[in-house]
Structure formats: structure tokens, C-alpha cells
Amino acid sequence: MAGINKDNYATQREVRQLFDLLGNRWARRWLVGVRSPWQLATSQELTQFLQRWRESRFALQCSAYQGLHRLIHAGWYGNPASWPALGYRQPAAVMEMLP
């Protein structure tokens, strides 16, 4: 949870609860609609799960989708290894400051 603002404990707690829920096999089956373990889920199952939550009539599922969406984007766009695939060249002065 290093990518989440350390000052916002409530957000960290909500994300932890979401991951705990998604890690529960019963929740994965009945709330998410994915029968197999995450590692064995097909891309079609994952796509359908994300689409259902994105378009859900339940605000909580829409909110959970948005949270996952933001985390994935932060991880992708915040990773210097992904920048060449995006055609992005960070200024040299900034690159020197990165770990």
C-alpha cells in the first residue's frame, strides 16, 4: 500500500478491506463471479468482472472498481520501466532524483 497516501488511513483501510474481500473464495465466487482462483482465472472472466463492477447499479461496486482502476494506473504510469512503451521521456534532471 506504499502507493497510497500514508496520511489517509481511511483510504488505506478501505483498500485493505477490498483486497481482503477479493481474496475470499466465497466473495470471489458470489460477489465477483469468478469461480476459479485468481491465478487461474481467464482474461474473459476478469474482463467480465471488471465490466460488471464498472457498470453496476450499486455504488459500492462502482467505487471499488474506480479504486482498482486508479491503483492499476498509478502502478503503470508511476513505473519508469513502463515509460518507453508510452513514448514518454522524463527529463534527465528528474531521472537523477528517482531511486
Architecture overview:
The chain has 99 residues and is mainly α. The chain has six helices and no strands. The longest helix has 19 residues, at 59-77.
Helical fraction: 55-70%
Low-confidence stretches: none
- Our estimate of the beta-strand percent is under 5%
Largest sheet: none
Intertermini distance: 18 Å
Number of helical segments with 4 or more residues: 6
How would you sum up the global shape?
extended
Indicate the radius of gyration in whole angstroms. Answer: 17 Å
Q: Which features does this protein show?
A:
mainly alpha; 99 residues
Write a short abstract of this structure.
The protein is mostly helical.
SSE layout:
Elements: H1 9-23, H2 25-32, H3 43-54, H4 59-77, H5 83-86, H6 92-97
